Amino acid sequence: MAEATVGIVMGSDSDWPLVQKAAQTLEKFGVAYETRVISAHRTPDVAIEYSKTAEARGLKVIIAAAGGAAHLGGVLAAATVLPVIGIPVAGGALNGLDALYATVQMPSGVPVATVAVGSAGPTNAALLAVQILGTADAALREKFRAHKEELRNKVAAANDRIHAGA
User: Fold this and answer.
1) Spans of all domains in the chain
2) Coil, helix or strand for 8?
3) What is d(CA 127, CA 61) in angstroms, rounded to the nearest whole number?
4) Which CATH architecture has domain 6-137?
5) How far is residue 56's CA from residue 112's CA, in Å, rounded to a whole number?
6) C-alpha closest to that of 65 among 131, 130, 16
7) For 40-63, how does the pLDDT look when each residue is reduced to its tens digit (9 = 90+)?
8) Are 68 and 27 in contact (CB under 8 A)?
9) 87 - beta bridge partners?
10) pTM of the model
């Protein structure tokens, strides 16, 4: 298998059923990835080490999924120059609003790109990673271009269906 270029990190294994959509999307584009469960609060030393060594291991983008306080993306971003994409995971008393706020309210100088709370988040995180990687990979960029065309075709087909009986 090819060397991973995307790291998918989640704060808990309970996040996997949702985060798995990111892995499936990366597979669709032929992008190699690795997965890890790392807690920003319970294993901060592991999070920092993962992030510090990510570039040397060949990663180019990190996707971080976390709920609740959702500090994982920020902790990872603090220790790397690689782009980090945060997925705020819904759950708990605030149903993901706390995770969203934690992920988007990063201090100046430590950016974490943030995608939607909910089922679209992991897919969009993977697609954003593909776009980032595509800036330096023409073949991947063409795959993404084809993906966008497929989306346009689906919308056009839906429009045709609703007007077919009119």
Assistant:
1) 6-137
2) strand
3) 11
4) 3-Layer(aba) Sandwich (3.40)
5) 20
6) 16
7) 999 999 999 999 999 999 999 999
8) no
9) 65
10) 0.94
